[in-house]
Amino acid sequence: MKTAIILTLAVGTFLQSCNYNAQDHVKENAVPVMERAVIQIDTIKKTDVQIRSFIGKTTNDIEVSKMHDCLGVIFPEDTSKNKYALAQYSAIIDHCQHGQSKFVIERFLRHDANGRAVFLIVDELNVVANYPTICFGNFRLAIEDDREENYIVAFYNNDSEVINQLSRIWRIDLEKEKFVEISKPKDLILTNPDYVESDEDSAFTNN
Known about the structure:
Layout: E1 5-7, H1 33-51, H2 59-64, E2 68-74, E3 84-90, E4 98-111, E5 117-130, E6 135-142, E7 148-155, E8 162-163, E9 166-173, E10 178-182, E11 188-191
Parallel strand pairs: 1-11
Antiparallel strand pairs: 2-3, 3-4, 4-5, 6-7, 7-9, 8-11, 9-10
């Protein structure tokens, strides 16, 4: 393996918790004290729900439980012709990037009466994000045997063009239908999908 591996992400298959834009449901100044207390109690209940395992549940079950979709991506069909997806769910919308959420591997089951795809959750990975201290993202990388596969990477967002501070990494093993943690590759460097050059950068400044 080369001393420094620079891998670009596949834009079509990359979604991450760190750049998830949470929506403001209620303005702080507009919420009466009593209503705010109710919201806090409900938040605690929803957080407790998230701790429970989703393995064996379907995407219809998750929809009924009112979980928030942080991301969703369909994987290309593998040799077994099964269809798989990766999703990330949180009980509270802000927890996609600041709090507890779950990444899940989903296997296609059927289409429902409305023609929507129904998936079965076969494995899950509980994570706690705290942007920008710790972020989680889905990258398609060629790490093992130079074969491109999908990985969940825990990393520190240093607001630069590359990401070189990794915490943990999991391979999304579709044959075993498992998240498999692997050792961090030495000197692995990723392209930072959130990095945007400032207008004040010299590249944008006329001499």
